[in-house]
From TrEMBL:
Domain ATPase F1/V1/A1 complex alpha/beta subunit nucleotide-binding: residue ranges: 131-350
Keyword annotations from UniProtKB, A to Z: ATP synthesis, Hydrogen ion transport, Hydrolase, Ion transport, Transport
GO biological process: proton motive force-driven plasma membrane ATP synthesis
Protein name according to UniProt: V-type ATP synthase beta chain
ATP synthase A/B type C-terminal domain location: 355-455
GO molecular function annotations of the record: ATP binding; hydrolase activity; proton-transporting ATP synthase activity, rotational mechanism; proton-transporting ATPase activity, rotational mechanism
Amino acid sequence: MAIEYLGLNSIEGPLVVVDGVRGAAYGDIVRFRTNRTHHKVGQIISIEGEHALIQVFDSTTGMSLENTHTTFTGKGMEIALGPDILGRTFNGLGKPLDGLGTIHAEVSRDVNGAPLNPVSRIYPRDYIETGFSAIDGLTTLIRGQKLPIFSGDGMPHNELAAQIAKQAKLGDGVDGEFAVVFAAMGVKHDVADYFRRSFEESGAMKHVTMFVNTADDPVMERLITPRMALTTAEYLAYDLGKHVLVILTDMTSFCEALREVSNAKQEIPSRKGYPGYLYSELATIYERAGIVKGKSGSVTQIPILTMPNDDITHPIPDLTGYITEGQIVLDRSVAGKNIYPPINVLPSLSRLMKDGIGEGFTREDHEDVANQLFAAYSSAIDARSLASVIGEEELSDLDKKYLAFGQSFEKEFVGQKADETRTIQDTLNLGWDLLRQFPKTELNRIDSKYLDKYYDDLTYSYHTPLKEGTLEEGER
């Protein structure tokens, strides 16, 4: 039964204290009424005896100690869910922003989710095709995985996120419907409009659900937004059987909101002023991905975060790396070469990639081609360093080949047009095109049976099939 109290004990920033509270619990939703028309929502974040500390998901302007009516609902934050939630746009608290009215709800779910028994998880295997060669070929996203993107201020992570949401799809031969849940936290209005316009113009909006928290929205709302998105994804995956890709941008805004609330609560800070429970807060979000026994759907996560000062050792990317299964790193020096997406492939990795590629998943030669591309690009970086010391003309012929390979690899393999989508076959064929710059004897990471099958067969080419004799005899 909901109980209403009149008056507050104190107001400090987004936090209020109510005395004499009985029968309430941590995490319960609280509703405030300051007059007949103005309502606000909050959540209990601490209870000591009969004192309840409540964080308000709105500005506390207009609330007074004497005339504020407080109602304790006795239940946590919930979101109404139904099949028609796809194609809709909501704010961080699940209220419609598209003017299409409320959802015809089949169920209501607590946004904090339910603990998932690790024994009920299925190991991720099948891949998701994003259309980007640098991701699909070298850091393959596996269905049920959590693979973050580490970016920096001013980098094109918003464009990358929107393009992944528009063109991502299930791998070949995989049954099931695909859906995207997109959550934006602390973004500017023009960025929010860009996401909406991008999805609508491409026709992708029909299988996308958006949650948008803008920079001028209450900071408390930012803490709920990813949980709203993940609860929606779990409903689509485990109730409706869809394969759902969740894109969360920007997790740095979420962490900074957490720090702001922690400071308001006068908690003892940890690294860089963030609360000591930052790790567990991130884990409660990232761990809500996976495949569950007996369920036909899946939840895959791509959290995007901007590294403060491009520092990969900062607490946010550092802790994210501990929890997730790899990372895709956007590099400012690569972006400076006018390469999109500016992915630095050497520090990027996907820890689940090895079990979701190869014969029966992508193509039999995938792992060997990826290993050889990594090795060749690493040698190209070494050749650049050497050339900067002794001069390019002093390099050996082989080092000069690696130098040329590094340039073509960045421009042709990593770099793509903003509207270009490549299949996994396109990506692997392009990889072979680049590796044919070297003689067979230099490709020591590829099994001989794959060299015999793919190296000389120019039908496995991303470009227009080459004529015989295009490669010089000495390069074969």
